[in-house]
Amino acid sequence: MTALGRGDGTSSQRQVEERVASIFLRRLHLDVPDRDTDVIDAGLLDSLALVQLLATLEREFSVSMDLENLDLDDFRTVSSTARFIVGRTGGSSAHEALGG
After folding, report:
1. Which of 1, 14, 83, 95 is most deeply buried (CB count within 10 A of its CB)?
2. Phi, psi (5° rounding) for residue 85?
């Protein structure tokens, strides 16, 4: 059983960060230098890429996004995006999306 299956929040966060970093690279073709790089301030993530990111996160992690209640700060870094996903899924959908 993976750390996610045991409910280890730190391992869950780390694994989701890896998955989010992969989404940035594979789906958005953005090589984010660090998990704490502000992709908006750095000019890496524009409005079109943000929409693509949100759609991909919904699909990959089985989360639903209410656009009226989204906070842009949740998507500024790989780490903050992963925290958002873990908070929305409690680790369960993240675990499934990671192959668990």
Report:
1. 95
2. -65, -45
Enclosing domain of residue 75: 3-97
Instruction: Give pLDDT tens digits along the chain (100 positions).
Output: 333 344 456 779 999 999 999 999 999 999 999 999 999 999 999 999 999 999 999 999 999 988 888 999 999 999 999 999 999 887 654 445 444 4
Q: CA 35 to CA 5: how far, in whole Å? A: 23
Residue 41 belongs to a domain with what CATH number?
Answer: 1.10.1200.10
Number of domains making up the chain: 1
Q: For residue 17, which of 91, 73, 72 has the smallest C-alpha distance?
A: 91
